[in-house]
Fold Membrane transporter.
Amino acid sequence: GNMCMFMGYDSQLTIVEPVLRSVHDRSPTTIHAHSGYYGAGICTVFFTFASIVSPWALGLLGSKNTLLFGSLMFTLHIASFQYVHFIPYYLTSATIGIGYAMFYSGHGAYITEHSTRKTIERNSALTWALATSCMIVGGVVIALTAQTPEASGDILNATFVSNGTIPVESHRSFRQYTDIELRLMYGAFLAVCFVANLIFAFIPTRCVTNSIAPSNKPERVGFVEQLKKIYDTFFDKRALELTPLFCLIGLSTGWWVSIYPASLVFTKALSGNVYLPAMYLMVFGTGEILMGTIISVASKHIKNFAQLPSLIIGALLFLTNMVLALLATPGPATHSPTDESSILIEPSIPIALINALLLGMSDNSFNTSRTVICALVIPDHIAQVYSMSKFYQSLAESILFFVAPFMSMSMYFGLITSTCLLSLVFYARVVIKLRAAERSIHNENSRKLTF
């Protein structure tokens, strides 16, 4: 279900900025040039505040119905691309933000209901890898619906003449997406979203034996009481020390899902390859699956591997990506079409695909480490900790998208790398305290058994 749902939304996010830029080039009054970034920003703003109340909704609906509601909101947004206009686009960007928050609350609850302390690390890694394997299928869809520059050029020239809107060459995107491409591509994404809805409608609900979730039955907790729980969690020192990690995931997600792939399309040296966005998605998805498999296997042999070790590996991979991107990406390419040269390394397809692999592997590491620690740090407030993690993630991501039209490559490098290093320090502190608490409980139980 995750794989089908995210195949539509996450796959299109990697190209939505250049896609809507193409629509703007043909019809400037239909949608803004940077609507891809602004729509993603609106989504994450609504996600931010919906995350505060989503645990309350989870208590009313249960994990299964919460997942289904979120999936339906994704479907509605993808459907809006059949006829692009700024009104339905921005409206559904807001509703998908609410659906996103609901989905992730249900997702976190469903994983804990179907996991024990021994299986939570493996299940988290596998679930995330399967969900993001959608990128491979999404890449195939984009490749199959792509049109050659010659074919799309003929269609677009006719469109510009009929509309009387010929964009200034310096502002026009080098890679243009035609209306036919959009409807074919988003039609395929929409069909897969319907499959996701069916899967979530029929998934089982019964908990596994020794589940780490307190209950899988809907709990009708009062709204005020739920807000109090969230308030207590937001100011719990254990959860606060994880805030840098939550912000890092927001910044890194915005980077890999939209900003970096958009820079590939906006770089003139790479724009001639219409299949590069598809290849980026497929390699990214491969990286997710590869790291998910590594963590799952390693977790069976190395205790707590999916916590700090996973995060350290992910951070090293991500920092390598940021260095390569800084050296091989023209400064303005993160927000506008450009023919400028990069700092040191000539932009090339191999560098872009290496970065895609690094980003896929690091994303799985970050999210697995986050999922595991959220389930363990405050066991009686699991839903609230997940809510808090998504609040800060979406807050950081929304800010990033709204300032994206004004940020250069070097700005991203400074911002995200510093957040990554800070996250490592504070995550290590939380893990050390968690180990100390576990040892204390173990020693206390041993003394009781002795007496």
